[in-house]
Amino acid sequence: MRLQSKLTLFSAASKAVVLLLLVLVIPPLVHRVALHNTDDRLIQKREQVLRIIEEQGIESFISEEDNGAYGSYNLLKEEFISLEQIPEAVAVDTIENSLRKVEGEVVEYRVLSLTFEVEGNFYLMEIGRSLATIGENTDTLQQYALYFLVAVVLITVFIDLTFSKILLRPLMLIIRRLQRIGHPGAFKPQQLQTTTSDFLYLNNTINNMMGQIQAAFLKEKEFIGNVSHELLTPISILQTRLENLLTDPELPEHILIKMVENQKTLHRMKSIIQTLLLISRIENEQYLKNESVDLKILADEVAEEIAERAEVKQVGLEVNISEDWILPQANYTLLFTMLFNVVNNAIKYNKPDGKVTIEGHVNGKGYALKVKDTGIGIDAEQIPNLFNRFKRLHAPDGESHGLGLSIVQTVAQFHRIKLKVLSTPGEGTTFTFLFPKAEAVIAS
């Protein structure tokens, strides 16, 4: 999972936990706040009533016809106020819940009770507010609070996602730059525009590391090119001398056999050196890409060239390309060598009465040229090292893959062709060459 996704998920999860805790805490908290506000309101009404009594007298509430009592409920029974004369002084000053029967209906109220004295008489004042009304207000408040919290969480998650994307942009630039590197020789160190010291340190470390790899790679290419070139001359001289000796009619037969074997060994050594020299020249871009290559014609000519070898190995060879695809700015000889080596391996490591198919088709990203075989296949752990010229892979039959696939990869990189290998041991292997759309045109 990408770092940005992990940061976003962690941020969202942490906010979800906070939201859950608030959902558990808000209801009792809102209820306490609602009760506190109700008590304050009851106290304010008490002060208002006492002020009216002080200014206008108790008669403004209780007259002689009222039998020493006064009561008033609002229309929906949400609030009430009552005054009642009591026979003796009882100190009461409380706020508590209480059940009252109003017009045959029992209603629970939050009631403020207070006793006071006016002109030698004692009175009990009660002011109440319906708990059902308080509960409705509390539910409404809780609902809006939860909506607000959810909105805040969503907004902060979006902000975190945007911020993490901006924060990690330098890292994405480093990754994309590394993904575009075809081989070490193509790497160019670049400065990173960021104020994050960690990313600056990472970029500088990669630049230094790639610089060392690039230097070693260039030395290795130079060494291979020089050594290959220098070795070809003495090997050619040895081959010429052996050929001259082989023409001697007085040469004993057992010496003749050994000399023929030496000639084969020298030929194999020369082939390896020429391959290394070819790879070095391609990597040093000593070949021109000034030809237009029709991939269908290329596949047909490779199949024609190698048909006799396939017949000897009792392997069927088929070309199935329905669409012409012309690759501009290419090198025909190198592409021929690339495809020939893959088809040759497909025949070499196939089974008797097996089959090799060269097929091509246009896809969304360009053109895909595939070489499929029904051979012995390649183990999954060997595929990552398949094109490594320094690691020799052994097939199940005891034979080994040489430098041919290294040439294939080098030519593909030289033409910016992507290589994919899929293989199932015992069933076969598929090599896919992906030609970019921008690099080619469809033949009319």
Number of domains: 3
Distance N terminus to C terminus? 45 Å
Spans of at least 5 consecutive residues with low confidence: 396-401
Number of strands: 15
The succession of helices and strands, N to C, reads: HEEEEEHHHHEHEEHEEEEHEEE
**Helical percentage:** 40-55%
Catalytic activity: ATP + protein L-histidine = ADP + protein N-phospho-L-histidine
GO molecular function, one term: kinase activity
Organism: Pontibacter ruber
EC number: 2.7.13.3
What does this structure look like?
The protein is an alpha+beta fold and 444 residues long. It is built from eight helices and 15 strands. The strands form four sheets. Strands 1-2-5-4-3 form a five-stranded antiparallel sheet.
Relevant terms:
single chain; 444 residues; Helix Hairpins; five-stranded antiparallel beta sheet; five-stranded mixed beta sheet; 8 helices; 15 strands; kinase; membrane; HATPase_C_sf
List the helices and strands and how they pair.
Elements (H helix, E strand, L loop, with lengths): L2 H54 L12 E5 L5 E8 L6 E10 L2 E14 L2 E10 H37 L1 H11 L17 H50 L6 H31 L7 E4 H18 L3 E6 L3 E6 L1 H17 L6 E9 L2 E8 L19 E2 L5 E2 L2 H11 L3 E7 L3 E9 L4 E2 L2
Parallel strand pairs: 7-9
Antiparallel strand pairs: 1-2, 2-5, 3-4, 4-5, 6-8, 8-15, 9-10, 10-14, 11-12, 13-14
Helix pairs in contact: 1-2, 4-5, 5-8, 6-7, 7-8
Brief rundown of the structure:
With 444 residues, this protein is an alpha+beta fold. It contains eight helices and 15 strands. The longest helix has 54 residues, at 3-56.
